[in-house]
């Protein structure tokens, strides 16, 4: 067995990766499912950044959205419901050379996995986290999720969701060490792509909530907004997510400097429109894997050090 | 090892200004000491140092902590008893023995707790703080009298020690210092080397101020001097020169060192007694070795992080105790399904639920083997000594990697906190995990290219070009593609099971302690090893045809058991887990809930394995096992 360093091993300098190099199995989502748009944006990102497929890892939980890694030809880990983030953290902690993405549904991230969501935000592990929020439990066939709108009838609350939905953006912004918090919609491919791309370039935990259409169960959620750009408002700023001409269609814009956490928190509160863009961005917060990084030791060095430790326990 | 009658002799000590006294030297081969105090008075530290210096002096040692469940239970109550039992002998010691021969007690209530536990020998020597006897508070004086009255039917020999009064000469608050004074007394009684003790104190207090170190040493010297001037007996436990270099540590330290020796660079955990001290120990040193202790947000995340690291090519381990094991269950199933190498250490305590947080039990056996829903074959094994705690981590990592499987290591509170000397391990670089191999594999390499005969497959990790795949907890084929046909699921189950059968074939037939045939075979597992063998040896000395067998591998079970059992008239397990007593009301042979190991052995061998089990929250004592052996001898043979 040849030993090789973790970085740059086996990479061919001249290799060019096309979109096809990243395509995995044929997606089995429902026609019109917003997850497809996210997959397209992600493939475009992989190609644009020319990420080596073998150096890229997609970790997911369980849900429609968590099938995501299967449709890519990178390394993937399709794990447990709610538990994508601990696995992603484990990968990144020991292999900072890998590009790590976590894909989660709203039940996954905001309900069963809520503790991991909060704590991974605080760890600020360098991971791109995509929350595919369709406001419902899709895979298990239409149960109320923490982000289902109040009154939304589901199989578990047929007379309508009894509580007001939780606000994943406001929640994340409330966590110490939140460093990148953005919101986008699957039906605006340019903005979706730019947001994921900004998240990828961010050093730290990039939390991106993607408003995701589920034509199977929650059509009414975003249907109107898809047809009527007046129901969407973009936060704009030179350091924000580029609009690339979208400003022609979306008239509602609000200036927001993403380094202004207070204003970001204010804007996270709902006021009638879906607000998209970058709520907060701070590149200066250290990542867990940096804080915890230790110099690598050879087996011989370890033995020497361990013998010195054992001396203290010698009889 | 049986307790020997003390051989006494006397020696005149040189006149030190005080009146000349005759010092009785009590020479024994096996002697047990306890230090009991209110929680927070430092008994652990005193005892740890005493155990350590005794081992360093060349004696065999086994120490066990006596731990109250709360951090600060009400002082001067039996519930507050905190301390340590230190059994010291000429030869190696493998368990905590029967009863204490000498007790250092900081008040009469904590002593009473030990008395009520029947922990003290009939003629135990008791050195006790005298300040309570004539205390200003009449209630305290009354409590003292009542306690003495309660203990009066035993022939304990009391020595009153003015601990408070003496310590006040050096510190303002003797509550934080008596322990070193007591250590000084013990050092004198057992003729321990003060210089060695000072070295250990310096090491323990290396992060504290010089003043704290100086005070501790002054108290130590004061205790030594007090004993020198006031006591008239010494205990001499002869030593045998060890042929090999030795180290002394507790089981959790051994697990920590063992993990480093196995090349593990990540311990991912969430605090829980009695597992936590292993991570304290590791946290102290692991960074030097390029590793970290990751304290996760909960046990679920802890195991998830370890699995993520393992997926990325670095074998990690997670350490926990019963309640944490319960939380990790789903992830352990996922690791089994995805064939992710993973080491899980469970330092058992009493259960279910919060149970006995600080105390020993062997109640997680069945949960650790069968805890996962679905068929989830994996390896479960249990070290029986501190040395095995050290070595088992390398074994665990190697099995986990070679068989792409989960290995669970079961220790318990007894091993975790007890100290024992053992031969210093001769570290080897091949114990360490090799750095991940990131060489390209041919395009289309299968993530589970199962060998149909063996169920084994090659592991491919992120970073290896050509090997891209998505592992999944869903039932999958050799390409890790989600299976939608019955064949796929059946084949996956078969492959994961088969490699465990292959693994079982590599195990050695266990050795019987004593004769290979006889009237009764006692079977145990884990930390009960020493106590069981000691009881069996005593029974054999008495002419009983008893042997014993200590299992290390519980799943898969070691080979040849049915054959071994067939040579005995009766087989019985001895365990620290609950079982119904056959004489209890409503209990029939049909509804009797048996000890967990006997349950397992009966199912696997179809032998009618009986059991004797107790859940006292303490290690078993050889004398109690001996009694159980007599009680369970088959009819018609010598009891
Ligand atoms: C421990 C556990 N509990 C419950 C489930 C069942 N389950 C699977 S997916 C899911 C919810 C999916 O909803 P969401 O996370 O929003 O993903 P979506 O399908 O909407 O993309 C549930 C409850 C499970 N797989 N595991
Ligand atoms: S149920 Fe909804 S989320 Fe799931 S695949 Fe269908 S459209 Fe997409
Ligand atoms: Mg959902």
Description:
The complex is a heterodimer of chains A (315) and B (639). With 315 residues, chain A is of the alpha/beta class. Chain A has a single domain (15-311), classed as Rossmann fold. Chain A is 32% helix and 17% strand. Chain A has a 9-stranded mixed sheet with strand order 2-1-3-4-8-7-11-9-10, sandwiched between helices. In chain A, strand 7, helix 7 (189-201) and strand 8 (206-211) form a beta-alpha-beta unit. Mean pLDDT of chain A is 95; it is low at 1-10. Chain B is α/β, with parallel strands linked by helices and 639 residues long. Chain B folds into 4 domains: 27-236, Pyruvate-ferredoxin Oxidoreductase, domain 3 (3-Layer(aba) Sandwich), CATH 3.40.920.10; 247-424, 3-Layer(aba) Sandwich (Rossmann fold); 438-506, no CATH class; 518-632, 3-Layer(aba) Sandwich (Rossmann fold). Chain B has a 7-stranded mixed sheet with strand order 12-11-13-14-16-15-21, with helices on both faces. In chain B, helix 6 (194-204) packs antiparallel against helix 7 (210-230), helix 8 crosses helix 9 (276-285) and helix 16 packs across helix 19. Mean pLDDT of chain B is 94; it is low at 1-6 and 13-18. Chains A and B meet through strand 1, strand 2, helix 3, helix 5 and helix 11 of A and strand 10, helix 8, helix 10, helix 11 and strand 18 of B. The complex binds thiamine diphosphate, iron/sulfur cluster and magnesium ion. Iron/sulfur cluster (SF4) binds at residues 29-30, 33, 35, 64, 134, 138, 214-217 of chain A. The site of iron/sulfur cluster has 11 residues of chain A, from loops.
């Amino acid at each position: 067995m040849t030993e090789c360093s973790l970085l740059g091993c086996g990479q061919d300098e001249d290799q060019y990766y096309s979109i096809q190099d990243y395509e995995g199995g044929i997606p089995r989502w429902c026609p019109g499912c917003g997850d497809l748009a996210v997959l397209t944006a992600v493939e475009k990102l992989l190609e644009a950044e020319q990420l080596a497929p073998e150096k890229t890892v997609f970790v997911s939980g369980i849900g429609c959205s968590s099938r995501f890694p299967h449709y890519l030809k990178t390394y993937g880990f399709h794990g447990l419901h709610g538990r994508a983030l601990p696995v992603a953290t484990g990968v990144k902690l020991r292999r900072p050379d890998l590009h790590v993405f976590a894909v989660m549904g709203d039940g996954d991230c905001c309900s069963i996995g809520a503790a991991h969501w909060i704590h991974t935000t605080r760890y600020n592990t360098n991971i791109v986290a995509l929350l595919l929020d369709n406001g419902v439990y899709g895979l298990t066939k239409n149960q109320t999720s923490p982000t289902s709108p109040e009154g939304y009838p589901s199989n578990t609350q047929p007379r309508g969701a009894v509580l007001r939905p939780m606000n994943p953006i406001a929640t994340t912004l409330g966590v110490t060490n939140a460093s990148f918090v953005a919101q986008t919609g699957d039906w605006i491919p340019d903005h979706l792509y730019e947001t994921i791309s900004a998240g990828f370039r961010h050093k730290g935990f990039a939390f991106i909530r993607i408003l995701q259409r589920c034509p199977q169960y929650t059509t009414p959620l975003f249907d109107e907004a898809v047809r009527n750009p007046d129901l969407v408002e973009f936060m704009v700023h030179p350091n924000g997510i580029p609009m690339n001409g979208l400003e022609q269609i979306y008239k509602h814009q609000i200036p927001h400097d993403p380094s202004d956490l207070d204003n970001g928190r204010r804007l996270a509160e709902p006021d009638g429109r879906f607000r998209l863009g970058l709520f907060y961005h701070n590149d200066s917060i250290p990542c867990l894997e940096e804080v915890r990084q230790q110099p690598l030791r050879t087996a011989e060095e370890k033995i020497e050090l361990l013998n010195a430790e054992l001396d203290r326990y010698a009889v | 090892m049986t307790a020997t009658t003390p051989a006494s002799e006397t020696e005149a000590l040189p006149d030190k200004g005080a009146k000349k006294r005759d010092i009785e030297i009590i020479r024994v081969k096996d002697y047990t000491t306890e230090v009991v105090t209110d929680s927070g008075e430092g008994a652990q530290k005193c005892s740890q140092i005493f155990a350590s210096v005794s081992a360093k002096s060349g004696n065999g040692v086994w120490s066990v902590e006596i731990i109250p469940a709360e951090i600060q239970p009400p002082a001067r109550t039996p519930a507050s008893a905190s301390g340590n039992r230190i059994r010291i002998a000429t030869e190696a010691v493998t368990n905590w023995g029967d009863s204490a021969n000498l007790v250092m007690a900081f008040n009469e209530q904590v002593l009473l707790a030990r008395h009520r536990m029947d922990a003290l020998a009939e003629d135990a020597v008791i050195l006790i703080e005298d300040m309570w006897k004539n205390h200003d508070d009449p209630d305290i004086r009354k409590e003292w009298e009542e306690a003495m009255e309660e203990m009066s039917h035993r022939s304990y020999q009391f020595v009153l020690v003015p601990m408070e009064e003496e310590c006040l000469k050096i510190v303002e608050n003797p509550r934080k210092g008596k322990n070193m004074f007591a250590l000084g007394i013990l050092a004198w009684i057992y003729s321990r080397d003060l210089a060695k003790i000072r070295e250990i104190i310096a090491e323990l207090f290396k992060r504290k101020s010089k003043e704290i170190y100086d005070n501790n040493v002054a108290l130590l010297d004061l205790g030594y001097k007090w004993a020198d001037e006031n006591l008239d007996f010494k205990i001499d436990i002869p030593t045998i020169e060890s042929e090999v270099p030795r180290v002394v540590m507790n089981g959790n330290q051994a697990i920590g060192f063992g993990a480093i020796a196995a090349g593990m660079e990540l311990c991912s955990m969430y605090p829980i007694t009695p597992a936590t001290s292993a991570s304290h120990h590791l946290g102290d040193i692991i960074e030097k070795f390029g590793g970290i202790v990751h304290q996760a947000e909960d046990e679920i995340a802890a195991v998830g992080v370890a699995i993520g690291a393992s997926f990325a090519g670095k074998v990690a381990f997670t350490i926990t105790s019963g309640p944490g094991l319960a939380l990790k269950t789903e992830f352990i199933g996922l690791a089994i399904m995805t064939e992710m190498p993973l080491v899980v250490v469970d330092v058992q305590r009493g259960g279910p639920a919060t149970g006995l947080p600080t105390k020993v039990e062997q109640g997680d056996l069945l949960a650790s083997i069968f805890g996962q829903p679905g068929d989830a074959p994996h390896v479960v094994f249990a070290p029986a000594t501190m040395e095995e705690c050290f070595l088992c981590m390398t074994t665990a990592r190697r099995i986990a990697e070679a068989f792409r499987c989960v290995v669970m290591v079961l220790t318990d509170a007894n091993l975790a906190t007890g100290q024992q000397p053992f031969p210093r391990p001769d570290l080897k670089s091949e114990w360490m995990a090799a750095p991940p191999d990131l060489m390209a594999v041919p395009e289309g390499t299968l993530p589970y290219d199962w060998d149909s005969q063996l169920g084994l497959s090659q592991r491919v990790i992120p970073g290896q070009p050509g090997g891209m795949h998505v592992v999944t907890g869903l039932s999958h084929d050799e390409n890790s593609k989600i299976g939608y046909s019955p064949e796929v699921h059946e084949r996956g189950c078969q492959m994961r099971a088969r490699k465990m059968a292959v693994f079982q074939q590599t195990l050695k037939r266990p050795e019987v302690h004593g004769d290979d045939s006889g009237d009764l075979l006692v079977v145990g597992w884990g930390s009960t090893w020493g106590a069981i063998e000691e009881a069996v040896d005593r029974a054999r000395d008495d002419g009983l045809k008893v042997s014993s067998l200590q299992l290390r591998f519980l799943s898969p079970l070691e080979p040849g058991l049915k054959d071994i059992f067939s040579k005995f008239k009766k087989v019985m397990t001895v365990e620290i887990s609950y079982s119904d007593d056959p004489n209890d009301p409503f209990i029939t042979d049909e509804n009797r809930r048996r000890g967990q190991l006997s349950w397992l052995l009966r199912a696997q061998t179809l032998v009618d394995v009986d059991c004797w089990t107790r859940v006292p929250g303490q290690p078993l004592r050889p004398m109690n096992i001996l009694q159980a052996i007599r009680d369970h001898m088959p009819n018609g043979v010598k009891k």
